[in-house]
Specification:
- 47% of the residues are buried.
- This protein has a single domain, classed as Flavodoxin domain (Rossmann fold, 3-Layer(aba) Sandwich).
- With 184 residues, it is an alpha/beta fold.
- Helix content is 43%, strand content 21%.
- Helix 1 crosses helix 7.
- Strands 1, 2, 3, 4, 5, 6, 7 and 8 form an eight-stranded mixed sheet that branches.
Protein backbone atom coordinates (compact mmCIF):
# COMPACT_ATOMS: atom_id res chain seq x y z
CA UNK A 1 0.00 0.00 0.00
CA UNK A 2 1.78 3.14 -1.21
CA UNK A 3 0.53 6.44 0.20
CA UNK A 4 1.49 9.78 -1.33
CA UNK A 5 0.79 13.03 0.49
CA UNK A 6 1.32 16.07 -1.76
CA UNK A 7 1.06 19.52 -0.20
CA UNK A 8 1.92 23.14 -0.73
CA UNK A 9 2.86 25.50 2.09
CA UNK A 10 4.30 29.01 2.12
CA UNK A 11 4.43 29.58 5.89
CA UNK A 12 4.71 26.00 7.24
CA UNK A 13 1.18 25.65 8.63
CA UNK A 14 -0.01 23.31 5.89
CA UNK A 15 3.31 21.51 6.15
CA UNK A 16 2.72 20.92 9.89
CA UNK A 17 -0.71 19.52 9.09
CA UNK A 18 0.74 17.38 6.28
CA UNK A 19 3.29 15.95 8.75
CA UNK A 20 0.47 14.99 11.13
CA UNK A 21 -1.62 13.45 8.31
CA UNK A 22 1.48 11.44 7.34
CA UNK A 23 1.97 10.31 10.95
CA UNK A 24 -1.61 9.04 11.03
CA UNK A 25 -1.21 7.33 7.66
CA UNK A 26 2.01 5.65 8.80
CA UNK A 27 0.35 4.48 12.04
CA UNK A 28 -2.43 2.87 9.98
CA UNK A 29 0.12 1.19 7.68
CA UNK A 30 1.96 -0.16 10.72
CA UNK A 31 -1.29 -1.41 12.30
CA UNK A 32 -2.04 -3.28 9.07
CA UNK A 33 1.43 -4.84 9.08
CA UNK A 34 2.42 -3.06 5.86
CA UNK A 35 6.11 -2.44 5.26
CA UNK A 36 5.75 0.75 3.18
CA UNK A 37 6.02 4.27 4.48
CA UNK A 38 4.05 7.28 3.44
CA UNK A 39 5.72 9.47 0.84
CA UNK A 40 5.38 13.10 1.90
CA UNK A 41 6.26 15.55 -0.87
CA UNK A 42 5.92 19.17 -1.74
CA UNK A 43 3.77 19.46 -4.87
CA UNK A 44 6.72 20.69 -6.95
CA UNK A 45 8.61 17.43 -6.25
CA UNK A 46 5.75 15.12 -7.23
CA UNK A 47 6.29 13.25 -10.50
CA UNK A 48 3.70 11.52 -12.66
CA UNK A 49 5.27 8.22 -11.60
CA UNK A 50 4.71 9.14 -7.92
CA UNK A 51 1.03 9.59 -8.74
CA UNK A 52 0.84 6.37 -10.78
CA UNK A 53 2.63 4.32 -8.11
CA UNK A 54 0.47 5.41 -5.18
CA UNK A 55 -2.61 3.51 -4.04
CA UNK A 56 -3.67 6.45 -1.89
CA UNK A 57 -3.36 10.12 -2.84
CA UNK A 58 -3.84 12.83 -0.22
CA UNK A 59 -3.58 16.44 -1.41
CA UNK A 60 -3.37 19.48 0.88
CA UNK A 61 -3.27 23.21 0.18
CA UNK A 62 -3.60 26.51 2.01
CA UNK A 63 -6.60 28.56 0.92
CA UNK A 64 -5.47 31.47 -1.26
CA UNK A 65 -8.10 34.04 -2.18
CA UNK A 66 -10.92 31.55 -1.75
CA UNK A 67 -9.42 28.56 -3.54
CA UNK A 68 -6.37 26.29 -3.68
CA UNK A 69 -2.87 27.76 -3.99
CA UNK A 70 -1.51 27.85 -7.53
CA UNK A 71 1.33 25.30 -7.02
CA UNK A 72 -1.34 22.72 -6.17
CA UNK A 73 -3.31 23.68 -9.26
CA UNK A 74 -0.12 23.35 -11.29
CA UNK A 75 0.28 19.75 -10.12
CA UNK A 76 -3.37 19.08 -10.93
CA UNK A 77 -2.97 20.51 -14.44
CA UNK A 78 0.23 18.52 -14.96
CA UNK A 79 -1.48 15.35 -13.73
CA UNK A 80 -4.20 15.82 -16.33
CA UNK A 81 -1.84 13.89 -18.64
CA UNK A 82 -2.91 10.79 -16.70
CA UNK A 83 -6.60 11.31 -17.37
CA UNK A 84 -6.58 9.83 -20.88
CA UNK A 85 -4.75 6.70 -19.74
CA UNK A 86 -6.94 6.33 -16.65
CA UNK A 87 -3.86 5.60 -14.54
CA UNK A 88 -5.39 7.05 -11.37
CA UNK A 89 -8.72 5.23 -11.58
CA UNK A 90 -9.72 3.25 -8.50
CA UNK A 91 -7.25 4.90 -6.13
CA UNK A 92 -8.41 6.31 -2.80
CA UNK A 93 -8.19 10.07 -2.27
CA UNK A 94 -8.17 12.41 0.70
CA UNK A 95 -8.03 16.21 0.89
CA UNK A 96 -7.05 18.81 3.43
CA UNK A 97 -6.68 22.56 3.61
CA UNK A 98 -5.55 25.22 6.04
CA UNK A 99 -7.16 28.66 6.08
CA UNK A 100 -6.99 31.91 7.96
CA UNK A 101 -10.76 31.92 8.38
CA UNK A 102 -11.03 35.66 8.02
CA UNK A 103 -14.54 36.79 8.88
CA UNK A 104 -15.12 33.52 10.70
CA UNK A 105 -16.95 31.98 7.76
CA UNK A 106 -14.18 29.85 6.36
CA UNK A 107 -12.88 32.15 3.66
CA UNK A 108 -13.17 29.54 0.91
CA UNK A 109 -12.02 26.38 2.66
CA UNK A 110 -15.05 24.39 1.50
CA UNK A 111 -14.51 25.51 -2.08
CA UNK A 112 -10.89 24.50 -1.84
CA UNK A 113 -11.72 21.01 -0.58
CA UNK A 114 -14.55 20.48 -3.02
CA UNK A 115 -12.47 21.61 -5.99
CA UNK A 116 -9.81 19.08 -4.97
CA UNK A 117 -12.60 16.47 -4.88
CA UNK A 118 -13.68 17.48 -8.35
CA UNK A 119 -10.23 16.78 -9.72
CA UNK A 120 -9.98 13.42 -7.94
CA UNK A 121 -13.43 12.42 -9.16
CA UNK A 122 -12.48 13.38 -12.72
CA UNK A 123 -9.61 10.92 -12.49
CA UNK A 124 -11.88 8.19 -11.11
CA UNK A 125 -10.62 8.16 -7.53
CA UNK A 126 -12.89 7.41 -4.59
CA UNK A 127 -12.75 10.33 -2.18
CA UNK A 128 -12.84 10.16 1.62
CA UNK A 129 -14.54 12.90 3.60
CA UNK A 130 -14.12 13.41 7.33
CA UNK A 131 -16.77 11.31 9.11
CA UNK A 132 -18.40 12.91 12.15
CA UNK A 133 -17.32 10.00 14.37
CA UNK A 134 -13.60 10.56 13.73
CA UNK A 135 -11.45 12.17 16.49
CA UNK A 136 -11.19 15.90 16.05
CA UNK A 137 -14.30 16.41 13.91
CA UNK A 138 -15.38 19.39 16.03
CA UNK A 139 -11.90 20.94 15.84
CA UNK A 140 -10.87 20.51 12.21
CA UNK A 141 -13.25 18.10 10.56
CA UNK A 142 -15.65 19.16 7.87
CA UNK A 143 -17.67 16.69 5.84
CA UNK A 144 -15.48 17.23 2.79
CA UNK A 145 -12.16 16.53 4.51
CA UNK A 146 -9.73 18.05 6.99
CA UNK A 147 -9.97 21.84 7.40
CA UNK A 148 -7.55 23.51 9.77
CA UNK A 149 -8.10 27.13 10.73
CA UNK A 150 -4.80 28.89 11.42
CA UNK A 151 -5.92 32.51 11.93
CA UNK A 152 -7.48 34.15 14.96
CA UNK A 153 -10.58 36.36 15.11
CA UNK A 154 -8.52 39.44 14.22
CA UNK A 155 -7.34 37.75 11.04
CA UNK A 156 -3.82 37.27 12.33
CA UNK A 157 -1.91 33.98 11.95
CA UNK A 158 -2.13 31.92 15.11
CA UNK A 159 -0.69 28.56 14.09
CA UNK A 160 -1.99 25.02 14.13
CA UNK A 161 -3.72 24.01 17.37
CA UNK A 162 -2.87 20.67 18.99
CA UNK A 163 -6.51 19.63 18.61
CA UNK A 164 -6.21 20.15 14.85
CA UNK A 165 -3.13 17.93 14.76
CA UNK A 166 -5.17 15.20 16.49
CA UNK A 167 -7.77 15.56 13.73
CA UNK A 168 -5.03 15.48 11.09
CA UNK A 169 -3.60 12.22 12.43
CA UNK A 170 -7.08 10.71 12.63
CA UNK A 171 -7.79 11.72 9.03
CA UNK A 172 -4.51 10.30 7.69
CA UNK A 173 -5.25 7.00 9.42
CA UNK A 174 -8.86 7.01 8.21
CA UNK A 175 -7.96 7.42 4.53
CA UNK A 176 -5.43 4.57 4.69
CA UNK A 177 -7.82 2.30 6.62
CA UNK A 178 -10.48 3.01 4.00
CA UNK A 179 -8.02 1.95 1.29
CA UNK A 180 -7.31 -1.32 3.12
CA UNK A 181 -11.06 -1.94 3.57
CA UNK A 182 -11.63 -1.23 -0.11
CA UNK A 183 -8.90 -3.60 -1.23
CA UNK A 184 -9.99 -6.58 0.88
C1 LIG B 1 -1.91 34.93 -0.73
C2 LIG B 1 -2.75 34.46 0.43
C3 LIG B 1 -4.13 34.43 0.28
C4 LIG B 1 -4.94 33.94 1.32
N1 LIG B 1 -6.30 33.90 1.14
C5 LIG B 1 -7.09 33.37 2.12
C6 LIG B 1 -8.50 33.23 1.90
O1 LIG B 1 -9.07 33.57 0.88
N2 LIG B 1 -9.23 32.70 2.91
C7 LIG B 1 -8.68 32.32 4.10
O2 LIG B 1 -9.40 31.85 4.96
N3 LIG B 1 -7.32 32.41 4.30
C8 LIG B 1 -6.52 32.92 3.35
N4 LIG B 1 -5.16 33.02 3.54
C9 LIG B 1 -4.59 32.50 4.80
C10 LIG B 1 -3.94 31.14 4.60
O3 LIG B 1 -4.84 30.22 3.99
C11 LIG B 1 -3.50 30.55 5.94
O4 LIG B 1 -2.69 31.44 6.65
C12 LIG B 1 -2.81 29.21 5.73
O5 LIG B 1 -2.83 28.46 6.93
C13 LIG B 1 -1.36 29.40 5.28
O6 LIG B 1 -0.77 28.14 5.08
P1 LIG B 1 0.80 27.95 4.96
O7 LIG B 1 1.39 28.43 6.26
O8 LIG B 1 0.97 26.50 4.77
O9 LIG B 1 1.26 28.76 3.81
C14 LIG B 1 -4.35 33.51 2.55
C15 LIG B 1 -2.95 33.58 2.68
C16 LIG B 1 -2.16 34.03 1.64
C17 LIG B 1 -0.66 34.06 1.81
Amino acid sequence: MQVLIAYHSDYQQTQAVADAVAAGANAALLDAGATNHTLLKHVSDVSLDDLRDADVLIFGSPVHMGSMAWPMKKLIDTASKLWMSGDLEGKIGGVFATYGGFGGAGGGVEQTLVSLHANFLQHGLLVCGFPRSLSGFADAGIHWGLAVRTGNDEGMPEGVADAALVAARAYGAHVVETAFDFNT
